[in-house]
Specification:
212 residues, alpha/beta, 8-stranded parallel sheet, 8 strands, binds zinc ion
Length: 212
């Protein structure tokens, strides 16, 4: 069975793991599967040429999603620039009809505000927040993705347990662990067989990327 990894920074070459690119935008393998975006922690490092290069690369067929994009309060000095680029990239995602992968740190209200403009599926990656926040996102119809934190964090496991699998994803992000470990942990937390985690997530993947 194929394990979907909705957000990784490793080029695995697998059609079921989305490699997230935030620099060197023209350097994509022809047969890779990517998400691509201007990272909110790095907005100050992009010049006009890099931004144009990112926006051009977003059109490519191996770029399946736009992201990770979003807002991060730790980069407060460039807050206005984060908002401008976030809004532009939401517009591009709408025009290209590609899903959004969201990076959101200490900025949930602002993210939700600007995401009102999104007309494509939205995935909040690296979720580590509370159950009420998770429910708020699901209510909007958004998806949530859990990563390596699920292996360690008991309160995050409690949160995960109470959410419907038909709006969830799993990921490795920049962690060195294998995606298998995240699925095994998810199954253990839910006290179920791993197939019961793999199949709904596969269906979510097929749904948002219109594969089946
Ligand atoms: Zn990432």
């Amino acid at each position: 069975m194929f394990l979907i990894d909705i957000h990784t920074h490793q080029k695995t070459g697998a059609a079921t793991s989305l490699c997230a690119i935030y620099s060197d935008f023209q350097n994509l393998d022809a047969d890779g599967v990517y998400s691509l975006g201007l990272h909110p922690m790095m907005v100050q490092s992009y010049d006009a040429i890099a931004i144009e290069s990112a926006y051009q690369a977003m059109v490519k067929k191996q770029v399946w999603a736009i992201g990770e994009i979003g807002l991060d309060k730790r980069n407060k000095a460039y807050w206005d620039l984060q908002i401008t680029l976030f809004q532009q990239q939401i517009e591009i995602a709408n025009a290209l009809q590609k899903p959004l992968i969201i990076h959101c740190v200490q900025a949930i209200d602002a993210c939700l505000l600007y995401l009102k403009a999104a007309q494509v599926p939205v995935i909040f990656h690296g979720f580590r927040k509370s159950l009420p926040v998770a429910k708020q996102l699901l209510q909007q119809g958004y998806y949530i993705s859990f990563g390596a934190a699920l292996l360690q964090d008991a309160s995050l496991q409690m949160c995960f347990k109470q959410l419907p699998l038909d709006q969830l994803f799993l990921e490795t992000d920049d962690s060195p662990i294998a995606i298998d470990e995240v699925y095994e942990t998810a199954a253990k937390v839910l006290q179920t067989e791993i197939e019961n985690v793999i199949l709904p997530i596969q269906e979510n993947f097929n749904r948002i990327f219109k594969l089946a």
